[in-house]
Sequence to fold (382 residues):
Amino acid sequence: MRNAAIESIQMSSALKRLLGQRAEKLGFDGMRVTRSDSIPDAPAQLQQFLELGYHGTLDWLSERTAERTDPRKLWPDAKSVIVLGMNYGPETDPLAHLSQPEIGGISVYARHRDYHDIIKGRLKELAGLLVSKGGGEVKVFVDTAPVMEKPLAAAAGLGWQGKHTNLVSREFGSWFFLGVIFTSLELEIDDPEEDHCGSCRACLDICPTDAFPGPYQLDGRRCISYLTIEHHGPIPMEFRKSIGNRIYGCDDCLAVCPWNKFAVEARENKLKARDELNEPALADLLLLDDTSFRRLFSGSPIKRIGRDRFIRNVLIAAGNSEQSALVPSIEKHLDDPASIVRGAAVWALSELADREYVKTLKHRFEQCEVDPSVVDEWRAIS
Fold:
């Protein structure tokens, strides 16, 4: 009996080594394994997050919470969870755009091909190898199911959740994507990573909108990534100036993490930034209609939010740019079919255009505007 147990452990270890070798060839930069019952604190943590309303309008986070916080309830046959990381480290300073108000700042993760398309197929290939060599069953996830990837990755030792709530690795800093494989096999388990944040507060202190109520807490409703990507309505007035020229996501809390001194550039070519998304001019982006928006962001995660929300973001950035040359392009959006675009255009003009000219426009457009949110934007102009 003892010999059988030893043999089983040896087979598990050999299978894990084989998977790790293949994972590296597939472009993954880290692979760790944890048990399916390794995140017992997750239910209470998620419940507190929801009760505080930090999820904003992301109602799907309050659905299927049992499955989300326990892999065994999502798939009762799950015994082990394989967590893989793929580095997408930037080639240039991720905050360089902040000193160039005439361009739009796009989060590093969205400057290239959609990572879902890149990782999913490779996870399936790795999962196929696991089944062919070890048997059992598998399920593969890349943001495609109620799975808490970050707590699982921390439990597996791929990194730890920093004070900004994102995963941090001593090898790759904060720039890496996560993919997960559930398996019915019992694989050799890795130790969890310790928290190495210490007394550092860099990520908390840099946040432009004070989205961190405290260490390890994120109020999504104040997060620029949430506001520019997930939020469907007008950007709340209190955050508009703080958003600056960030038009899709925000990397501030990631970029200042001291552990990023160990980060390296992405080795996967498909995760190299596209030139046209590195420093896009606001003047060019303001010209995008639906067709040109879809063409520019084909294969990009930005396409998901649609042209209207994106132009809303660009208009907020334009209003913060101090570039009066943008006024004619902004003014054209006062007639846009989308109310969130019209409303953002009103605000941008109020920030850039001559005050008397804006009042003239107000008199002309306020009378025919039917959307209450846009009417409020006009009325806010004195």
Q: What stands out?
A: The CA atoms of residues 362 and 378 lie 6 Å apart. Residues 1-7 have pLDDT under 50 and may be disordered. The first strand starts at residue 30 and ends at 35.
